[in-house]
Write a structure and sequence with these properties.
It contains 13 helices and seven strands. The chain is of the alpha+beta class and 511 residues long. α9 runs parallel beside α12.
């Protein structure tokens, strides 16, 4: 059996033979080949074991036949002995063993014929014939003795007539026993041979099973595991922005996936190059804004201020108002430029994360606002769960949220701002709630866009960049941001942060 499995082993261990098979067919091979082998092994062992049992049964039957033959021989000897004792002594006592033997002999002949093998059938017939002849002689001698013809009986004995018949029976018995002994020896030899083949089959099956397991493991490793490992490694290299390993040999779905991964990596490289160029252009644009646009805006404001100071008393009608509007819009333009620079700077600023006490940070922002003259507003700050984040960026988030809350609740009879937070599963949820003018939720999608406003500038000042900065900061930290409100009922702004470093790392990978 091990020799028969060698071609399959060589075939399974050859990687090139299976490189072009699909994963489904490779899986079928991994299941079907061991199943077929073990089924074949089971059938072989069953057949050999059945032969072993049959030969053992044949040997056992031969031994039973030999035992029955010796039993038959003993009965014939007992019958002859009883007949001779009666012939010599005329004592009926000697006829008891004779009668017992004669009574048991028919059943013994039947049993012997039932046990005897087909090949020894003629010997059984000869044995039966010679036995019947000997018994007939013994019966006739006893009859003569009882009829008073002792001389005739003794004369027959003197002629060795009885001895010749018993010798013929013994000769037939010897031939029968010799034949049965040969059959028994042959059955024993075949039984031993079958047992040896059974042991050989078990040992060979074990060796073949080990070889097959080794071949299948090599096939699985080279045909599936190593290819999956290559795809996994390439995936990690894509994440680390490292060069990818060579493309796998084509053929199965794993190779197709790896080829697709290479295509995606190339597309990412192209996109990365484009993004770097766009960032460079954005940096150049930001530089132009900070240096080229600020100067004209400052000049407009400056010249308007000089006109207002030097020639304001000469202006009449709407002149002073026009100059005031020019200066106000110039300052607004300056704030827009500053906010736009702050927004674009976020994409180039590296995050410096640390464990932050969010409660203390919120209180510091409120205290700073009060020192800078922010309108007095009742601000309640609950105990906030700590978070791992960039302190400077998170400070800007609170500044933007709180300044908005103070601004939009300024018209309320009793302005109130609440800051709260709680842990929910793997994230912390924070909120800033006010009792201000609120907004219509139909336009909530505009809240976190650049330069998007839900109120007119003459109602509430602002550039429309603050909430866009908030969204970018929270997104960089792996969190979410949203708002809930209704007109005249205040607004609630929510944002989340991972509640643990492990959860934060998971969010970073997903983003």
């Amino acid at each position: 059996m091990p020799v028969a499995t060698l071609p399959a082993v060589r075939l399974l261990s050859n990687r090139l033979s299976f490189a072009r098979l699909s994963v489904a067919r490779k899986g079928l091979i991994l299941v079907a080949v061991p199943l077929f082998f073990h089924l074949l092994f089971l059938l072989t062992v069953t057949a050999v074991e059945r032969e072993h049992r049959e030969q053992r049964a044949s040997a056992q039957r031969s031994r039973q036949t030999i035992t029955a033959a010796y039993r038959l021989l003993g009965l014939m000897v007992d019958a002859e002995t009883g007949m001779r004792g009666y012939e010599l002594t005329r004592n009926e006592v000697f006829l008891d063993p004779y009668r017992a033997s004669v009574g048991a002999l028919p059943r013994q002949f039947v049993q012997l014929r039932a046990l005897a093998a087909t090949d020894t059938g003629p010997n059984v017939d000869n044995l039966t014939t010679t036995g019947q002849t000997a018994l007939e002689y013994q019966s006739s001698v006893i009859a003569q003795m009882r009829e008073g013809d002792a001389a005739g009986a003794i004369a027959r004995t003197t002629r060795l007539e009885g001895k010749q018949r018993m010798d013929a029976f013994r000769a037939a018995m010897n031939r029968f026993l010799a034949a049965e002994e040969r059959l028994s020896a042959t059955a024993d030899a075949r039984s031993d041979a079958a047992r040896s083949r059974l042991y050989a089959a078990l040992g060979g099956g074990f060796v073949a099973d080990v070889l097959l397991a080794g071949a299948l493991s090599v096939f699985f490793t080279r045909g599936i595991a190593s290819r999956l490992r290559a795809v996994t490694e390439n995936t990690l290299r894509v994440e680390r922005h490292e060069p990818l390993a060579p493309v796998l040999a084509p053929g199965d779905e794993i190779a197709s996936l790896d080829a697709r991964l290479h295509e995606m990596a190339n597309a990412i490289d192209v996109a990365q190059t484009g993004l770097e160029e766009a960032n460079h252009e954005l940096a150049s644009f930001s530089y132009s804004i900070s240096h080229d646009l600020r100067a004209p805006v400052r000049a407009v404001d400056g010249y308007a201020r000089m006109l207002e100071e030097d020639y304001g008393d000469r202006l009449s009608g709407d002149g002073p108002r026009f100059l005031s509007t020019i200066r106000s819009e110039a300052r607004r333009m300056g704030r827009l430029i500053d906010d736009l620079l702050a927004f674009s700077k976020l994409s180039r600023t590296e995050s410096q994360e640390a464990e932050v006490d969010m409660t203390m940070l919120a209180r510091e922002v409120v205290e700073q606002a009060r020192r800078e003259g922010t309108p007095a507003t009742n601000t309640l700050i609950d105990d906030l769960p700590p978070a791992r984040c960039d302190p400077a960026m998170m400070r800007q988030v609170f500044i933007n949220f709180l300044s908005n809350a103070v601004k939009f609740s300024a018209l309320a009879a009793k302005p109130l701002v609440e800051v709260g937070g709680e842990r929910r599963g793997e994230e912390n949820v924070y909120w800033v709630r006010d009792n201000g003018v609120g907004f219509d939720m139909r336009y909530s999608a505009k809240l976190f866009g650049v330069f998007q406003r839900l109120h007119r500038f003459d109602e509430f000042e602002g550039t429309g960049v603050g909430l866009a900065i908030v969204k970018r900061v929270i997104t960089r930290h792996g969190g979410r941001v949203w708002a809930e409100s209704s007109p005249g009922a205040g607004a609630s702004f929510f944002f989340t942060l991972p509640s643990s470093p492990a959860a934060h790392d998971l969010r970073e990978v997903k983003s």
